[in-house]
From TrEMBL:
Domain Band: 54-211
Domain of life (superkingdom): Eukaryota
Positions of transmembrane segments: none
Stated family: Belongs to the band 7/mec-2 family.
InterPro entries reported in the protein's UniProt record: Band-7_stomatin-like, Band_7, Band_7/SPFH_dom_sf, Stomatin_HflK_fam
Protein's UniProt name: Band 7 domain-containing protein
Lineage: Eukaryota, Fungi, Fungi incertae sedis, Mucoromycota, Mucoromycotina
GO CC terms: plasma membrane; side of membrane
Biased segments, Polar residues type: 282-306
Length: 306
């Protein structure tokens, strides 16, 4: 017979349930013991009477009370103050809060024959207090052992690189294996997470060498690309500087630099282009006009005489 279903106080679902009393429990002995228990419980409610047990028990929020009568399941009770018969009934509590269980360090051989150590954690909570209480001796121990076995099976079917890159996929596979079995025990698996993967010293050195080789290769590729770009720029510069106008510009810049270099008076002779067009640089002409630039110490700038 269902007493309440839904949210209890908006905080947790109600698990309250009562079983029908069978005829064999209504015998003379059962009735007598129930009557004695009621009397003792009544005396226990008196504040000054400390010799008798109090029939009222507290069930904390986040827990469910499991009441048995003569060792047989009687009812489930929600959080609050619960009255039990101190002679014929007993109450135990099951937590329905999410629990975190450390699966521990597991030595596993991967599919590519690499030995690693994996640490994982399991998140779970009870959804059926009756099955969790009466269906398995220690539900947490059973879940941990089942998770360890599943972890070895799943990780043993993957390569090392796959385990490193796809931890979420491995965790989902482990949860998929454990969840159907946990439901039979009245437990729901919220998540299974791989916390850490530990490698041996030799494997760490091998992975570090591979990573270093990869970084060196990437650096060489970047350097090669930069050299290609520089070569392209130099090619474009040489094409631009190969024109006559560019040669004349460089020629004038060189003359200006020579005039500014050194100390004391100096005279520079330069060939000026003819009126018909630009003169060819690098070739002397007897008829080409020349100009001299003389710089004196007392003057502020060069004087030109033709």
């Amino acid at each position: 017979m269902e007493i309440g279903i839904g949210k209890y106080g908006g905080l947790q679902p109600s698990f309250a349930r009562v079983t029908e009393a069978s005829e064999d429990e209504q015998g003379f002995y059962a009735s007598m013991m129930s009557g004695i228990g009621n009397c003792i419980g009544f005396l226990g409610t008196i504040p000054c009477c400390v010799c008798f047990p109090n029939p009222y028990k507290r069930v904390q929020q986040g827990s469910v009370g499991v009441v048995t009568r003569f060792g047989r399941f009687q009812r489930l009770v929600d959080p609050g103050l619960v009255k039990v018969n101190p002679v014929t009934e007993s109450i135990s509590k099951s937590s329905i809060k999410i629990s975190i269980s450390d699966i521990g360090r597991q030595e596993i051989m991967t599919k590519d024959n690499v030995s690693i150590a994996i640490e994982s954690v399991l998140f779970w909570h009870i959804v059926d207090p009756y099955e969790a209480h009466f269906g398995v001796t220690d539900v947490e121990f059973a879940l941990i052992e089942r998770a360890r076995t599943s972890l070895r099976d799943v990780c043993g079917s993957h390569f090392l690189q796959d385990l490193i890159e796809n931890r979420d996929v491995v965790s989902a596979e482990i949860k998929k294996i454990i969840d159907p079995i946990a439901q039979k025990w009245g437990v729901k698996i919220e998540a299974t997470l791989v916390k850490d993967i530990t490698f041996s010293k030799q494997l760490m050195e091998s992975l570090a060498s591979a990573a270093m080789a990869t970084r060196l290769g990437e650096a060489k590729v970047i350097t090669s690309k930069a050299e290609v770009e520089v070569a392209e720029l130099l090619k474009q510069s040489s094409e631009i500087l190969s024109t006559k106008a560019a040669f004349q510009l460089r020629y004038l810049e060189t003359l200006i630099s020579m005039s500014k270099a050194g100390q004391g008076p100096k005279t520079l002779f330069m060939t000026l282009p003819s009126s018909g067009g630009p003169a060819s640089l690098g070739h002397s002409s007897e008829n080409a006009p020349t100009a001299s630039i003389t710089e004196l110490p007392s003057t502020s700038g060069p004087s030109t005489s033709r």
